[in-house]
Amino acid sequence: MEAPAAVDESQSKEELAHATVLIEDVIRRMGLDPETVSIAVPEPSRAWSLMRGSAAVAVFLRPARAGEDSAQLRIVAPIIRMAGGDPLPLFRSLLELNAGGLGAVSFGVQEDRVVVVAERRTLDLERAEVEFLIHRVGAVGDHYDDELIARFGGSRITDLS
After folding, report:
1. Contact predicate 56/49, CB 8 Å
2. Quick one: CA dihedral 46, 40, 76, 62, positive or negative?
3. Which of 29-43, 53-67, 76-90 has the lowest mean pLDDT?
4. CA dihedral in degrees (143, 130, 120, 19; nearest 10)?
5. pLDDT exceeds 50 at position 141
6. Is 21 helix (H, G, I), strand (E, B) or coil?
7. Which of 44, 69, 125, 156 could form a disulfide with 4 if both were Cys (CB 3.0 to 4.6 A apart)?
8. Cα 27 from Cα 59, distance rounded (Å)
9. pTM of the predicted model as reported, rounded to 2 decimal places
10. Distance between CA atoms of 54 and 114, rounded to whole angstroms?
11. Residue 124 Cα distances to 40, 127, 129, 148, angstroms
């Protein structure tokens, strides 16, 4: 299998600009101001933080890296801080949920946090996809946070002070 052709800098800038317009349009349709919910990240990347139910959803947009053919959209919601003890039962449950089909999102672990994540390249990105992914990450995070805490312990990320 051939590696994807690297994207040139001007194409990457155009993709980032197009994806930014789509993301900010979706944020406005949610009744939020994109500037108010933006997160400071190094240029030319962009980021926004939104609450979807009990889940804090971060939307990241970054330029293509070496060997990639497109800029990347990553939507992530850290939902619980894991309790101490044996994490294997939790990990197995997360893998089973992933295999069961979560509709374009999956669970992952970053340090001591369980996250819900969706990633997609920005090539041919449409507004409906951005909207779906933001809503889906938030909905899955909001649905499973309390269930996972009840079964495996831990605490909800948004409850931490």
Report:
1. yes
2. positive
3. 53-67
4. -150
5. yes
6. helix
7. 69
8. 10
9. 0.88
10. 14
11. 26, 10, 10, 35
The single residue listed with the structure tokens 């990241």 is 60
Whole-number Å distance between alpha carbons of 75 and 108: 12
Rounded to 10 degrees, the C-alpha dihedral 83/75/138/32 comes to 130
Q: Report whether 94 contacts 114 (CB < 8 A).
A: yes
Closest by Cα among 59, 142, 153, 141 to 107: 141
Tokens 């805490």 belong to 149
Q: Which two tokens stand for residue 44?
A: 């030319």
Using DSSP's 3-state secondary structure scheme, residue 94 falls into helix
CA atoms within 13 A on the CB side of 159: 10
Token reading at 143:
């649905």
Residue with token string 């850290």: 78
Q: Report the amino acid identity of residue 72.
A: Q
